[in-house]
Amino acid sequence: MAGFTVAIVGRPNVGKSTLFNRLLEQRKAIVDDVSGVTRDRQYGVADWNGKSFNVIDTGGFVSRSEDVFEREIRKQVKIAMEEANLLLFMCDVATGITDLDAEMADILRRSSKPVILVVNKVDNATRQLEATEFYSLGFEKVFFMSSMSGSGSGELLDEITGQIPEDDETREAIEAAEALPKIAIIGQPNVGKSSLLNALIGEERNIVSDIPGTTRDTIHTHYKMFQKDFVLIDTAGLRRKNKVQEDLEFYSVIRAIKAMDEADVCLLLLDATKGVTAQDLSIFSLAGRKGKGLVVLVNKWDLIEDKSTNSARDYEKDLKGRLAPFSDVPVIFTSVVEKQRIFKAIEEALRVYDNRKRKVQTSKLNEVMLKAIESFHPPVVRGIPIKIKYVTQLPTFTPAFAFFCNLPDDVKQPYRNYLENQLRSNFDFEGVPLKLFFRKK
Ligand code: GDP
Ligand code: GDP
């Protein structure tokens, strides 16, 4: 299921972010080789038993100061109940049940979403005994764990992944193959997302129909432009938006993730008058890890005084430096108010969509890549040369390549980067994240 979301709620200092980091670590150890992940993330993707899910640390969104406390906590719980599929309610055995715990429990018991009570800091046998008092909060599912040491996390992950509905993979693959390109408009509040959408919708003749999104938080609109059919995904509330809510960073992030999960290609809008923010970069890297195509729009370009060629070129160069290692992405300078290059943006998104579907013939792939490997060998490890014998593109939905070699574990990042760059310079994968796997011949 695309975009199963788990939110961790609880009062400050119970250990939410410790658990959050632990859940994401599981993934890091297995597949995460994308750099640029910041320390103070509030959301991420966790993997367990071949299933993945989004995790939100709601604690990252509320102030830690004691006086704003209650109101903030209520907001946190409310948001989590609205946005998540499953809630982890975390308490701390060291403090026992506090008034605030009891109050949150009251709200959460009335939630229509499933809630798992996680009693944390159960580090030893004494605490295990003490932890039983938490049964009195009245939740059916109770887990005892130590986020710090990780004990109990396997059982919790089993329970979480057990609640994620099974994918019907073949059906999904067929549907996906037949489906229209899906393009999501994402970005922080006030970058111009709704203006862009309105400018596109303004061209009424392009609209074929409105189709409901897979969640109530997104709207899918079927368009026809340049003789091509595609679906634009926007986050609900863009058109008739509730400014107060949409301006909450939390909403913008969660909605962006939902739209992203449903899309093939994301149009990530940045505000030319503001620098690229950490939040922009982490949304960008998340889209990359989810294998989504990307086009970056530097919007409000009309507000930039000096629009000489250099200024755009310099901006793009600097931006790509910050997007590295995944910098093979189209960057378009748009002005939605002046309708500058907004159709170009859609054209690029459709091009990236085609790139993402590209399947390179095995013979061609080997011809090109073995030559590239020949002209720049992988390093020798422990006196043994690494030999890559054969390359093939995997039959996956997003481009992935398997390199068969004698010492797969010894092909390190710099050489992986070299191979990825060779793939990119020989075959057009602009805007598309690539996965490279190394396997024993
Ligand atoms: P948050 O405010 O709910 O996100 O809590 P944090 O994750 O920041 O943790 C608060 C404090 O509790 C930190 O000092 C953690 O090191 C500590 N902590 C978190 N998990 C455990 C645990 O399982 N056992 C113990 N003893 N301490 C923990
Ligand atoms: P959203 O929150 O991302 O949906 O952003 P909006 O579409 O509501 O735009 C926020 C503000 O930026 C509005 O006042 C828009 O008129 C303005 N805006 C959007 N695009 C542009 C642009 O290309 N140039 C300029 N100058 N203003 C823009």
From TrEMBL:
* Alphabetically ordered keywords of this record: GTP-binding, Nucleotide-binding, Repeat, Ribosome biogenesis
The record's section on InterPro entries has:
AAA+_ATPase (IPR003593), G_ENGA (IPR031166), GTP-bd (IPR006073), GTPase_Der (IPR016484), KH_dom-like (IPR032859), KH_dom-like_a/b (IPR015946), P-loop_NTPase (IPR027417), Small_GTP-bd (IPR005225)
Leader sequence segment: none
Keyword match Transcription: no
* Pfam families tied to this protein: KH_dom-like, MMR_HSR1
Keyword GTP-binding: yes or no? yes
> Could you state a single Gene Ontology molecular function term?
ribosome binding
Q: Which annotated residues bind GTP 2?
A: 187-194, 234-238, 299-302
Q: Set out the biological process GO terms recorded for this chain's protein.
A: ribosome biogenesis
Limits of the EngA-type G domain: 4-168, 181-357
Similarity section: Belongs to the TRAFAC class TrmE-Era-EngA-EngB-Septin-like GTPase superfamily. EngA (Der) GTPase family.
Q: What job does the chain carry out?
A: GTPase that plays an essential role in the late steps of ribosome biogenesis.
What's the name of the protein? Answer: GTPase Der
Native organism: Chitinophaga pinensis (strain ATCC 43595 / DSM 2588 / LMG 13176 / NBRC 15968 / NCIMB 11800 / UQM 2034)
Organism ancestry? Bacteria, Pseudomonadati, Bacteroidota, Chitinophagia, Chitinophagales
